[in-house]
Q: What sequence folds into this?
């Protein structure tokens, strides 16, 4: 498993792409890919699998961080 390391500081959610790959979300949450997939399947994040790669909606991750997620987003 490759680990993506951010080389620049993220100053705003808007600087991130609208669809995040699983490695980026892992870095933001400081967790494993398995944990991110669990969050997607639990409905905390909006995510889709495209081929073998996951793409996660930036705004659903932001809502999770800000505590706005109270129910499933699916």
A:
């Amino acid at each position: 498993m490759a680990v993506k390391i951010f080389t620049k500081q993220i100053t705003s959610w808007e600087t991130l792409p609208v669809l995040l790959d699983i490695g980026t979300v892992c870095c933001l949450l400081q967790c494993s890919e398995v944990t991110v997939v669990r969050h997607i399947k639990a409905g905390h994040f909006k995510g889709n699998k495209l081929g073998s790669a996951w793409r996660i909606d930036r705004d659903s991750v932001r809502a999770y961080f800000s505590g706005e997620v109270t129910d499933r987003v699916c």
Q: What stands out?
A: The chain has a mean pLDDT of 82. The two ends are 28 Å apart (CA to CA). Residues 17-66 form one domain. The first strand starts at residue 19 and ends at 21.
